[in-house]
Amino acid sequence: MVFLTFIRSALNQGPDKYWRIQQQLRFSWHFYGRKRNCYKIGMRYVFKALRYGVSGRKDKLKNMRELWYRRINAGSEEHGLEGKMFLEGLARSEIQLDRKILSSLAIYEPRTFKSLCEVSKNTLKEHNLPFHEKHINSRQNLLKDLINNEKSVEI
Amino acid sequence: MAHYRVQQWSTFARTWWLFDARWQCPWISARTIIPYLQGTKKPIYHPLSDTGDHVIVINTRLIAMKNERWITFKHIHDSRYRPKGVIEKRAWQIHAEEPTKIFEKAVYYSMDKNLLRRNLMARLHLFPDESVPEDLLKNVSDCIRQPMLAPKRLDEYTEEDRRNFPKLFDWPKDFVLDDGFRTKKQIEFQEP
């Protein structure tokens, strides 16, 4: 706003006092004590809460990203591939899928996720990248005597 | 997608795993077991949802440790009663009394320090021998792979294998063999 004279700027005191207070009360309705209803006391706590909101948005994405990666790692280890190399194999084969999408594929569409694992394995082999193919859990010879009765197996 | 609802049931089921602790380090094998208890091996994992599995561990009496870890490692219990409230016990001392104790503590301490920890430990079933009750063994569907390769003892080799093992020369009868434990200074002193 441009004020051509000094008088105009002195007259302009910002928004109406009533609406300014109402705006703050909308943010402080869930507080406890006098900072909930008093304007001057609640001012500091509202500003701090808004500042936490800004930093919280970054932390939320960081936490979600960690969870997505953990889910992708669990899904790819079922097919004998580490999650780190699985993502590199997809990047080299130019499949541009998010971690968010990949984690949801691992849960709801395991067959498509399996095919993506095979694609990344083949590209890693073409590029001669050393991917540590983890052992899938299988029955050992030591424990055959204990679980030789296959009829007793129940999940 | 209502007709696929039945297929989802097995994803949320608790599977039962079997782990053989024969000739295994308890702290390394704890790291392999914990993801199964915690449920991080499943793609449906979420910290608030309870997705852990059961694990049965057998042969905890036959766990292995490093050089002198049986003597040096000790568990400390402090009851906060000052005159003789602290109890220190060596690993071999505890293992003689309770053969499942060291494996249990190794898993308990290397787990994340949450309120969930006690509930996850309830799903770990420890047995000193191979004798497991059949009610538990019925549920087992698969076994966890051992992290360490169990070496073969010298007693288990036959005499023919020992004779045929390639060697350049025979030791003289008066020669004293080293037990292989050397400090860094001794190795530096000998090698250059």
Automatic annotation (TrEMBL), chain A:
<comment type="similarity">
    <text>Belongs to the bacterial ribosomal protein bL20 family.</text>
</comment>
<keyword id="KW-0687">Ribonucleoprotein</keyword>
<dbReference type="GO" id="GO:0006412">
    <property type="term" value="P:translation"/>
</dbReference>
<keyword id="KW-0689">Ribosomal protein</keyword>
<dbReference type="InterPro" id="IPR035566">
    <property type="entry name" value="Ribosomal_protein_bL20_C"/>
</dbReference>
<dbReference type="GO" id="GO:1990904">
    <property type="term" value="C:ribonucleoprotein complex"/>
</dbReference>
<dbReference type="Pfam" id="PF00453">
    <property type="entry name" value="Ribosomal_L20"/>
</dbReference>
<dbReference type="GO" id="GO:0019843">
    <property type="term" value="F:rRNA binding"/>
</dbReference>
<dbReference type="GO" id="GO:0005840">
    <property type="term" value="C:ribosome"/>
</dbReference>
<dbReference type="InterPro" id="IPR005813">
    <property type="entry name" value="Ribosomal_bL20"/>
</dbReference>
<dbReference type="GO" id="GO:0003735">
    <property type="term" value="F:structural constituent of ribosome"/>
</dbReference>
<protein>
    <recommendedName>
        <fullName>Large ribosomal subunit protein bL20m</fullName>
    </recommendedName>
</protein>
Automatic annotation (TrEMBL), chain B:
<keyword id="KW-0689">Ribosomal protein</keyword>
<keyword id="KW-0687">Ribonucleoprotein</keyword>
<dbReference type="InterPro" id="IPR005823">
    <property type="entry name" value="Ribosomal_uL13_bac-type"/>
</dbReference>
<dbReference type="Pfam" id="PF00572">
    <property type="entry name" value="Ribosomal_L13"/>
</dbReference>
<dbReference type="InterPro" id="IPR005822">
    <property type="entry name" value="Ribosomal_uL13"/>
</dbReference>
<dbReference type="GO" id="GO:0006412">
    <property type="term" value="P:translation"/>
</dbReference>
<dbReference type="GO" id="GO:0003735">
    <property type="term" value="F:structural constituent of ribosome"/>
</dbReference>
<dbReference type="GO" id="GO:0003729">
    <property type="term" value="F:mRNA binding"/>
</dbReference>
<protein>
    <recommendedName>
        <fullName>Large ribosomal subunit protein uL13m</fullName>
    </recommendedName>
</protein>
<dbReference type="GO" id="GO:0005762">
    <property type="term" value="C:mitochondrial large ribosomal subunit"/>
</dbReference>
<dbReference type="InterPro" id="IPR036899">
    <property type="entry name" value="Ribosomal_uL13_sf"/>
</dbReference>
<keyword id="KW-0496">Mitochondrion</keyword>
<dbReference type="GO" id="GO:0017148">
    <property type="term" value="P:negative regulation of translation"/>
</dbReference>
<comment type="similarity">
    <text>Belongs to the universal ribosomal protein uL13 family.</text>
</comment>
